[in-house]
Design a protein that fits this description.
The chain is globular and about 80 Å long. It has helices at residues 10-24, 73-77, 133-138, 142-149, 170-173, 197-207; strands spanning 46-48, 56-62, 68-72, 119-121, 127-129, 156-158, 165-167. 24% of the residues lie in helices and 13% in strands.
Length: 208
């Protein structure tokens, strides 16, 4: 005996199939624009090293563990306020005697603040804490700062693939008063593998 219920038309069947496809595949086959964005969380964290030279100077003293003692800048500079900053190193007759200064056409007042040696002054007058000296450097050394931001300048220690990394500060490699690298001799001279005993042994072996 046949059922008297009417069979669904082709349009109804097609609609049901499309609905089943949407319900069963809602998590895939989506347009590119609707896919969730990739996780942009960095796989490694990086911090910028802040050298001791930003906050003090070395002394000839050592602590009970034999470590060299550094004197904080404020140890001396808090005792009195100078009326003006020196215009050349020749005027240094009490503190920082012997300091070399070769940094373009700059002077002490180009970066330092009178009576507040824990801060620096940008060209627009903004005051920066000494630890942010890199912002001061970036004013004139734009290409180097750009390369630093991309990881092509400055160097770092740590693991590139993961884990904490420590990036060098500008003054880790450059003396802010004489920033140009000075000529130096390599610790170990390059060795020519084709010269000396190695070449002699190789030649002897070739004739045997």
């Amino acid at each position: 005996m046949h059922s008297s219920l009417p069979l669904p038309g082709a349009a109804a069947v097609l609609g049901l199939l499309c609905l089943a496809h949407v319900v069963g595949c809602e998590d895939r086959d989506q347009p590119l624009g609707l896919r969730p964005a990739l996780d942009a969380t960095p796989i490694a964290s990086a911090i910028i090293h802040h050298p001791d030279k930003l906050s003090g100077v070395p002394t000839d003293k050592r602590d009970s563990l034999g470590r060299p003692i550094r004197a904080a800048c404020v140890t001396c500079h808090s005792l009195r306020r100078p009326e003006a900053l020196p215009t050349s190193t020749a005027e240094l007759d009490e503190f920082h005697v012997g300091l070399k200064f070769e940094h373009g056409g700059l002077s002490c007042a180009s970066c330092h603040v009178i009576g507040d040696q824990d801060t620096l002054r940008k060209a627009d007058g903004e005051i920066l804490p000494m630890r942010d000296a890199m912002q001061l450097c970036a004013q004139c050394h734009g290409p180097q700062h750009r390369d630093y931001a991309k990881g092509a300048h400055g160097g770092m220690s740590g693991n590139y693939a993961g884990g904490a990394r420590v990036r060098n500060h500008c003054v880790d490699c450059h003396d802010p008063h004489v920033p140009a690298f000075q000529p130096s001799m390599p610790v170990l001279p390059p060795r020519d593998r084709f010269a000396g005993d190695h070449a002699t042994r190789t030649g002897e072996g070739a004739h045997r």
